[in-house]
Design goal:
The chain is built from 4 helices and 4 strands, in the order H-E-H-E-H-E-H-E. A two-stranded parallel sheet has the order 1-2. A two-stranded parallel ribbon has the order 3-4. Strand 3, helix 4 and strand 4 form a beta-alpha-beta unit. It is globular, with a radius of gyration of 12 Å.
Length: 92
């Protein structure tokens, strides 16, 4: 989930958890990543300080993610496309 610390992102984190998903939340900065963890994200990535592709690869065991929720767009969104699993989807 990109923008996971924003209103729609936080709701998506909680919805994903309620549906049984393993949630990887992406946000920028310590306070935002801590907020994602409090909302229930299984894994949190700070896109400002971590290699997003490498962390997703590590977390998913090189499989990639099945769904990317992206309410933000931009460069970070383009980077996450490198981490999508075969048959994966992106939801704006």
């Amino acid at each position: 989930m990109l923008g996971a610390a924003g209103n729609s992102g936080a709701a998506a984190v909680q919805l994903g958890k309620a549906l049984g998903a393993t949630v990887i939340a992406v946000a920028g900065g310590r306070s935002k990543t801590e907020l994602c963890a409090r909302h229930g994200a299984d894994h949190v990535i700070d896109h400002r300080t971590e290699d997003l592709t490498a962390r997703v690869t590590e977390i998913t065991g090189e499989r990639g993610v099945d769904l990317i929720y992206d309410p933000v767009g931009g460069e970070t969104a383009a980077t996450t496309l490198k981490s999508i699993a075969r048959g994966g989807r992106i939801a704006p």
